[in-house]
Amino acid sequence: MSALLEVEGVSKSFGGLRALSLCSLSVQRGSIAGLIGPNGSGKTTLFNVVTGYVRPDAGSVTFDEKSITGARPDEVFALGLGRTFQLTRIFARLTVLENMLVATQRNEGWLRSIMRAAASPAEQRRAMELLDFVGLARLSATKAGTLSYGQRKLLELAYVLVADPAVILLDEPAGGVNPTLINEIRERIVALNREGKTFLVVEHNMEFVMGLCHQVTVMHQGSAIVSGTPDVVRADPRVLDAYLGGGEEEDRDDVAVG
Ligand code: ADP
Ligand code: MG
Predict the structure, then answer these.
(1) Does residue 8 lie within any of the structural domains?
(2) Is the CB–ligand 1 distance for residue 40 below 6 Å?
(3) Among 59, 168, 175, 244, which residue's CB has the most CB atoms within a 10 Å radius?
(4) 28 shares a domain with 149
(5) Domain extent at residue 207
(6) Is the dihedral of CA 231, 237, 243, 244 positive or negative?
(7) How far apart are CA 248 and CA 173, in angstroms?
């Protein structure tokens, strides 16, 4: 087993607020890793650091044995690290297919591509294949703004796949999504993982995380406090403390930290 993505000792403050504090985490090649923790514990900030949207104050990010610390989002994306956003970033007035065609150009300055009249037939074919994969092909001519929340999440997943990334970071893929579509999303992740894609998934839906992920890391106040299989994480008293304790610091002399 080797780590495909490695975060070591990452810290990030916004003004006086310490969003990440010596946070370390590794994601094994070919695995589905989960990242959980209370609201405000730093999960999205960690995604932002890994994908180049936020520059860390300290620490390092290594992807496929190359340092990507401080790299720009487009550089990180071009190297094979794709992500979706907690709040989806689709273009509401473009159709579903047009959103995909914008995505095909993202790694070479996607804003410019909006001005482009047409994508190549090969790009269009690929976009339709991916829409078919996430079950949105029949909606390809629909304005993306009319999609349900779950369908937007599926569209985001499809357009991340355009770049054929090795690692996909999903920020709350099941958040606000109805149960039927949650299942769809889960099945797509499993299918992609079988093809060799590695995932790091932030999600509040515990059933989703525990059923899907091989390894789960728990964040609390900007640090990764526990990492292990779903069973190990479930049984660790520090995890419950993180969720119940909120922002308060407590003495935990009775808990062995290993
Ligand atoms: P999570 O995704 O686990 O809910 P976040 O990473 O979004 O947590 O936030 C961690 C902390 O950092 C929160 O207190 C949040 O308000 C703060 N934070 C995140 N991004 C910024 C930013 N760009 N500017 C200021 N504070 C931020
Ligand atoms: Mg978040």
Answers:
(1) yes
(2) yes
(3) 168
(4) no
(5) 1-80+165-177+196-258
(6) positive
(7) 29
